[in-house]
Design goal:
The chain is built from 32 helices and 28 strands. With 939 residues, it is α/β, with parallel strands linked by helices. The strands form five sheets. The protein has a seven-stranded parallel beta sheet, with helices on both faces. A six-stranded mixed beta sheet has the order 6-24-28-25-26-27, sandwiched between helices. A hairpin with an 8-residue loop joins strand 3 and strand 4. The longest helix has 48 residues. It is elongated, with a radius of gyration of 33 Å. The two termini are 50 Å apart.
Length: 939
């Protein structure tokens, strides 16, 4: 019976397969778990029973050498290039991510470098707002795709972020994510059998977390699907907290469905050790035994966080210092009257309540009052509806008080609304300089939906703008509505000039393309909301100096004046902290919006003066900050990423052009060079369209008959911007796509070029740059782990002189010696039958020498990795003990629960130990391929 091993290549049913796993039944028969290699069955998975199948193990020493008679050896060069480009990086250096269509800063490469140093790439990228976390995720995803670890990808994000994230991944990294918004999901379901898993329909998708959590049916589908990479954006929303429990359960489920998980969040923790531990344990369930007590060693390598001042020496002026101003206005007479009514109010409903946590209704009412009369009236009406269902005005005086305040607010017209008039004055002020030009748009933030609606309606009238020119965005909109507003706001041809946003738009959205102006119409009671709002325009890629204004009211009413002064201190301190320490959240010592609002609420409710509040900022007893555990060490030990420039025979565009011109001899694939920049226009044939349509989103597929590709990075980045300036009748996606190694067109081309020689064949070249007694074998050798993933993937050449092996050559040495990279290396077609026989006779020797060389790689890997594997396994043993010790403290008096907890811990660590062992242990079973043979001929 043949001996099979993971990584071995076999011929079966006239196709080529790679063995991934072997199972043996009680009768000794073997089941081979295989994945397809040859084009017809590429990436297909199948199981074959060895006792029922005729299986041939591919022997490289039996390779048939086929003389290349093509002009300038173009057939061989293309075949060689197609195979060489599929070589997998097996180190932890960066090979491709830095080449994306962006101007990468060194710090943006560090998350990928950090993640690649670990057996599993699971990381929380927690950089501050505006540093480019989406790009950092794309860099890491690109590196994983290059390593064969990115066939299936799932991105989970907020519904308003889906299109933006999808575009960033395609335009910069050519990662084709299909957007599963509500319309697309409905379409898929209508086309599929009811029991079909929609997550198998596309390999690379992006979906809203709210869509996933809303439909209980998805849970079963998720449990039965698996991805190579899962990305969770705005990951703070899936942490284990009082709210968002559905999202937390969903994230825990997803954490088990992929080897790789990337989390993104600018506000990753809420000051509670347990909450942050929940994110860390999603990334690595063995990391933290006690979620209330852990150290930097427990979370080391799982997260990375930087602020603007940490990276300012790397950005070369990318981050422009923002202009910040308080815009003050005095309350009108009617506003002062309403403030007086409000200040004198004492609610019965508040008498028996403790202060704090926004529990006093009067405090929540004041918050709405500081937003707008309309927002306050909305709050009053809601409370009156509740009260009137239970009481009469004789039973509770609060009803009359609220009616009186409502009457005073209803008298405040837009002309009497001082902050609104200040907004109009600012927008019309020549010193402010807003021109209403297409590239000078304004973002106005407000906390309240009623305020948003008021602003939209009145700004249209008072600024003389059309309905389309002043738009709103809020959480009540559907995913497609939100995405369209965001997309249109960044398009030059869109009529939008003012975007009035609730805080649904404060997380993640890029609003900086045509806007550098932001106005806070009302003042949040949280520093984190300041950060999130301001980060929409003050971020990586902003070309103009951000201009941020806060509208503040001044009142003669003592209470209103004091409370507004509290908010003014909050604003000014936030700006100072941003410059000095980078993280304004440190001021209040709180790390979630609710707790920050509670501090401000308590200050207002307790009647604290401004001096007391100012002294509170920065002196509050600081809550748990996990990054305190890491920051100093990270700053001391962070290594600059190592970037490797992999070279093959041809640059991307040259390979594509040569391949199409060669293929055109048998098939019609017209192509043209672009006139004004480096690029190609490729005629899309039915076969190409079918292949591309299977993996590309509909939005990305070319509208016409040609696919436009350019390897000019700067031009493609400009195209991204130009695509936003297209007329609204045109696509908002670039017409020219970025051509680099990761573009899907190369999969199609590699398959075509890979068929230029048949299975079991290798080209034989006769060149006059070698002596006639010299022969060079180009060899590719891989050595897999127990899961058949290559841990060694090396290309090298073997030089023979007078039929004797002389030395190993690197690929670069081989190129230099043979001159094979030359465009016009002459092919004299001088190979005789004797030359073919003599080269063929050396094949066994070449395979024997290649085996020795790969044995050296095997030994080198073991010497390097075995101590690391032992260290990892020892660490797991210690962690397992700590987990059990902690569980024993929880169930010290209940043996049944303690035993069950220990059983789960054993299962968890056994699975993880097996994963580490199977992934990192190398199998001494190299697979050797003869790629090409070069023989010298007479000059």
């Amino acid at each position: 019976m043949a001996e099979y091993a993971p990584g071995m290549r076999i011929e079966l049913r006239d196709e080529e397969w790679m063995v991934q796993k072997i199972e043996i039944n009680n009768l000794g028969n073997k089941a081979l778990h295989c994945v397809g290699i040859s084009p017809l069955i590429k990436d297909k998975e199948a199981i074959f029973l060895t006792d029922l199948e005729e299986i041939k193990v591919i022997d490289p020493s039996e390779t048939k050498l086929v003389p290349d008679t093509s002009e300038f050896f173009n057939r061989t060069k293309l075949y060689l290039e197609s195979q060489w480009r599929q070589k997998i990086p097996t180190d932890n250096k960066l090979h491709i991510g830095d080449e994306a269509a962006m101007d990468p800063m060194p710090y943006q490469l560090e998350p990928a470098q950090q993640a690649l140093k670990h057996p599993r790439q699971r990381i929380l990228i927690a950089d501050a707002v505006g540093l480019g976390k989406t790009l950092e995720a794309g860099i890491l995803m690109s590196e994983l795709i290059a390593r064969g670890k990115g066939k299936r990808i799932l991105v989970v994000t907020a519904k308003s972020m889906m299109t933006q994230f999808q575009k960033e991944m395609w335009n910069r990294f050519t990662i084709p994510l299909v957007r599963l918004d509500s319309n697309r999901i409905h379409k898929i379901r209508s086309q599929l059998p009811s029991n079909f898993n929609p997550f198998f329909y596309y390999d690379k998708t992006i979906v809203s977390i709210d869509t996933l959590k809303r439909d209980i049916e998805y849970r079963t589908h998720l449990e039965n699907a698996y991805w190579d990479i899962i990305v969770i954006d705005e990951a703070q929303n899936v942490a284990e907290r009082g709210e968002h429990q559905q999202r937390n359960r969903l994230a825990k489920l997803l954490a088990d469905r992929s080897d790789t998980m990337i989390m993104l969040s600018a506000t990753p923790h809420d000051g509670r050790a347990r909450s942050f531990a929940s994110l860390m344990n999603m990334l690595d369930p063995t990391a933290i035994a006690n979620p209330d007590d852990y150290t930097k060693d427990d979370i080391k390598g799982l997260c990375i966080r930087r602020f603007k001042q940490d990276v300012k020496n790397q950005v070369n002026g990318t981050f422009l210092e923002r202009n910040f101003e308080l815009e003050k206005c005095h309350a009108s007479m009617l506003e002062e009257a309403a403030y007086d009514v409000f200040s004198d109010m004492k609610f019965q409903m508040d008498e028996n309540k403790k202060t704090g946590a926004g529990q006093l209704f009067k405090t929540s009412l004041e918050k709405s009052l500081f937003s707008s009369p309309a927002a306050c009236i909305k709050s009053i009406n809601e409370r009156l509806n509740k009260l009137k269902k239970k009481y009469t005005s004789e039973q509770i005086k609060d009803i009359d008080l609220l009616e009186k305040l409502k009457a005073s607010l209803e008298m405040i017209s837009p002309k009497d609304f001082s902050r609104y008039q200040k907004l109009l004055s600012l927008l019309n002020d020549s010193n402010y300089g807003w021109t209403k030009a297409t590239d000078d748009r304004v973002v106005i933030f407000t906390e309240r939906i009623e305020t948003m609606k008021f602003l939209v309606e009145n700004l249209r009238k008072d600024l003389g703008l059309s309905k389309d020119a002043v738009q709103e965005i809020s959480g009540g909109m559907s995913d497609t509505e939100q995405q369209k507003i965001v997309e249109d706001f960044g398009r030059e041809e869109s009529p939008i000039r003012v975007l009035v946003a609730s805080d649904v738009a404060s997380e993640g959205l890029n609003l900086h393309y045509l806007s550098h102006r932001m106005i806070h119409f009302d003042i949040p009671w949280s520093l984190m909301v300041f950060q999130q709002r301001n980060g929409r325009i003050d971020r990586y890629g902003q070309k103009q100096r951000p201009d941020i204004r806060y509208l503040m009211i001044e009142s003669d009413n003592k209470k209103i004046h004091g409370d507004m002064r509290i908010l003014e201190i909050l604003v000014t301190k936030e700006e100072q902290a941003l410059k000095n320490i980078g993280d304004p959240a440190m001021l209040l010592g709180k790390f979630n919006i609710e707790d920050e609002e509670l501090v401000v609420t308590e200050t207002i409710e307790n009647g604290s003066d401004e001096n007391a509040f100012e002294s509170l900022l920065g002196s509050t007893e600081e809550e748990f900050n996990p990054f305190d555990l890491l920051m100093k060490q990270a700053q001391d030990t962070t290594e600059r990423p190592e970037v490797i420039k992999d070279e093959t025979l041809f640059k991307d565009i040259k390979y594509l052009e040569k391949a199409f011109r060669f293929i055109n001899k048998k098939e019609e694939h017209p192509l043209n060079r672009m006139e004004n920049h480096s690029g190609l226009e490729l005629k899309i044939t039915p076969d190409m369209r079918r292949r591309l349509a299977a993996i590309l989103p509909e939005e990305v597929m070319p509208q016409g008959d040609y696919l436009n590709l350019s390897d000019d990075k700067q031009f493609c980045m400009e195209e991204m911007m130009r695509s936003m300036q297209n007329s609204l009748s045109e696509t908002a996606w670039p017409r020219t796509q970025y051509l680099w190694k990761q573009h899907p067109i190369f999969n199609w081309v590699n398959d075509k070029a890979g068929l230029l020689f048949g299975r079991g064949e290798a080209p034989l070249l006769g060149i006059n740059t070698l002596n006639s007694n010299e022969v060079i074998f180009i060899i590719a050798g891989t050595i897999p782990n127990r899961k058949s993933t290559p841990l060694v993937d090396e290309w090298f050449a073997l030089e023979f002189v007078d039929s004797s092996f002389t030395k190993k050559l690197s690929m670069n040495d081989m190129i230099q010696k043979t001159g094979i990279r030359q465009d016009e290396l002459p092919n004299t077609n001088s190979l005789s039958e004797e030359d073919v026989k003599s080269a063929t006779s050396l094949l066994p020797k070449a395979i024997e020498e290649a085996q020795k060389i790969l044995n050296g790689y095997f030994e080198e890997y073991n010497n390097r990795m075995n101590p690391m594997i032992d260290e990892e396994l020892d660490k797991l043993t210690e962690l397992q003990k700590r987990h059990k010790d902690y569980q024993r403290t929880l169930f010290s008096n209940d043996e049944r629960f303690k035993s069950e907890a220990e059983r789960k811990i054993d299962a968890l660590f056994n699975n993880f130990t097996n994963w580490v062992t199977d992934s990192l242990t190398i199998q001494n079973n190299p697979y050797i391929r003869v790629i090409a043979v070069i023989k010298g001929v007479a000059k």
